[in-house]
Write a structure and sequence with these properties.
Layout (H helix, E strand, L loop, with lengths): L1 E8 L16 H15 L4 H6 L6 E8 L8 E8 L6 E10 L2 E11 L12 H10 L3
Antiparallel strand pairs: 1-3, 2-5, 3-4, 4-5
């Protein structure tokens, strides 16, 4: 199981007229955590793209438990629970301190620049073998 955690601070522009974080802002925060996870395993997303690999989102879902507001300090944790085969399924938790605000998931697949499915690059396969060896 792999984890990465990033922190963010809710900006005023990320809130709606009710003073609550607009629901669409959680997906970019998920991306921040996902990019951090790829960095952590030695497969930076920028390098994957330079090599001709893309990881588009195929599916996503979010469950909102509690709202966040302007100036809240949040932590976003992404988890890759199982060694991926053709697709990656990542789960996320957004917390304010110990309070769980949002849970979610994204599903991704490797594609080439023409958006045709491809096998993951060797560097990613090696990183997954190391990470899930135990």
């Amino acid at each position: 199981m792999l984890h990465a955690t990033v922190e963010t601070r809710v900006r005023f522009a990320e809130t709606d007229a009710m003073g609550v974080t607009y629901h669409g802002n959680y997906l970019p925060w998920f991306e921040m955590a996902r990019v951090s996870l790829l960095d952590q395993i030695g497969c930076p997303y920028r390098e994957l793209e330079k090599s001709g690999f893309l990881l588009p989102v195929l599916e996503t879902g979010l469950t909102y438990h509690h709202p966040s507001h302007f100036d809240d300090r949040l932590t976003i944790t992404v988890t890759l629970a199982e060694k991926p085969l053709a697709r990656l399924r990542l789960t996320y938790q957004v917390k304010r301190g110990q309070e769980l605000l949002v849970e979610g998931f994204t599903v991704h697949a490797f594609v080439n620049r023409e958006f045709k499915p491809v096998r993951p690059p060797a560097s990613f396969v090696e990183a997954m073998q190391k990470a899930f060896a135990h």
